């Protein structure tokens, strides 16, 4: 069933930012396909077709993208939203945990991108919108692996954008700050916790819980995703929410010593 309407594919669309983005794209005139690891358990959303997809599996990614092409004949926008968090000091989190994180947050984005690019190039247009974070350009103590995964997405997206721009395809970044979702509660804890980090990790947990509770609504981020999807002259990076905008400015203009001091203050670190 080919369509003349633009088609958006949103990963991790069953809740949070992904759900809000799927609904906002429907409102903006897109045919929207949302994905979840188990679509049968997803509460239906008006205007959104759900498919099973595990971004950590090559076969699952290939099958889901092929289903979209067979049903709609096109993919105009890919929103790489599916992701996971991780909280804990570097020394108390195993490499295996980091590998699981990267398999979703980084290699999942790469799998999805490689699957949709041939179709976007063939039609001469397309946008790949990758959900980064303010910790894609800021350090985050007690979330080093997560910050590393988002830093990776920043470098990957910027490099990709240069490769595909001449074919009518753009790779864009959306960078939220704290967002009112289940992120903190759903982030795995360190698998080899150490007593020496317990107090500071606890302080970080409390800071994160409060920040997310008071964070931006998912709809705020969804609005920016739609902007990135429809902007006539898209830019590489879109910060989402006022805090993200301020953080981006701080990173660009603050002297290194001032910036370092602010990071330690924000994360309640001594010295």
Keywords:
single chain; 271 residues; alpha/beta; Rossmann fold; 7-stranded parallel β-sheet; 10 helices; 7 strands; 50% helix; globular
Distance between the termini: 62 Å
Please identify, by name, the CATH architecture: 3-Layer(aba) Sandwich
Given the C-alpha coordinates, what overall shape results? globular
Please state the average pLDDT score.
95
CATH class: Alpha Beta
Q: Strand pairing plus helix content: what structural class?
A: alpha/beta
Main beta-sheet strand count, sense and barrel state: 7 strands, parallel
CATH-assigned fold name = Rossmann fold
Q: Bin the strand percentage.
A: 5-15%
Kindly report the name of the CATH homologous superfamily: NAD(P)-binding Rossmann-like Domain
List SSEs in N-to-C order.
EHEEHEHHEHEHHHEHH
**Poorly predicted regions:** none
Q: Looking across the biggest beta sheet, what order are the strands in?
A: 3-2-1-4-5-6-7
Number of discrete helical segments: 10
User: How many E strands?
Assistant: 7
- Taking Cα atoms only, what radius of gyration do you get, to the nearest Å? 19 Å
* Tally of discrete structural domains: 1
């Amino acid at each position: 069933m080919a369509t003349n309407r633009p088609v958006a594919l949103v990963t991790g669309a069953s809740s949070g930012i992904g759900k809000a983005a799927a609904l906002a794209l429907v409102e903006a005139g897109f045919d929207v396909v949302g994905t979840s690891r188990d679509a049968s358990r997803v509460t239906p959303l008006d205007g959104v077709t759900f498919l099973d997809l595990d971004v950590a599996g090559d076969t699952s990614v290939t099958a889901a993208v092929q289903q979209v092409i067979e049903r709609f004949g096109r993919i105009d926008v890919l929103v790489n939203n599916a992701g996971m968090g991780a909280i804990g000091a570097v020394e108390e989190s195993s490499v295996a945990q980091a590998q699981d994180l990267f398999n979703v947050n980084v290699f999942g984005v790469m799998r999805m991108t490689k699957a949709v690019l041939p179709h976007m190039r063939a039609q001469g247009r397309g946008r790949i919108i990758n959900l980064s974070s303010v910790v894609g350009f800021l350090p985050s103590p007690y979330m080093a692996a997560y910050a590393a995964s988002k830093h990776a997405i920043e470098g990957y997206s910027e490099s990709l954008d240069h490769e595909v721009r001449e074919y009518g395809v753009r790779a864009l970044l959306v960078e939220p700050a704290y967002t009112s979702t289940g992120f903190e509660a759903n982030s795995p804890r360190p698998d080899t916790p150490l007593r020496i980090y317990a107090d500071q990790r606890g302080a970080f947990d409390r800071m994160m819980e409060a920040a997310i509770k008071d964070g931006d609504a998912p709809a705020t981020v969804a609005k920016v995703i739609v902007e990135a999807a429809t902007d006539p002259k898209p830019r590489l990076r879109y910060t989402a929410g006022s805090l993200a905008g301020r953080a981006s400015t701080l990173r660009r203009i603050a002297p290194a010593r001032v910036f370092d001091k602010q990071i330690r203050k924000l994360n309640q670190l001594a010295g």
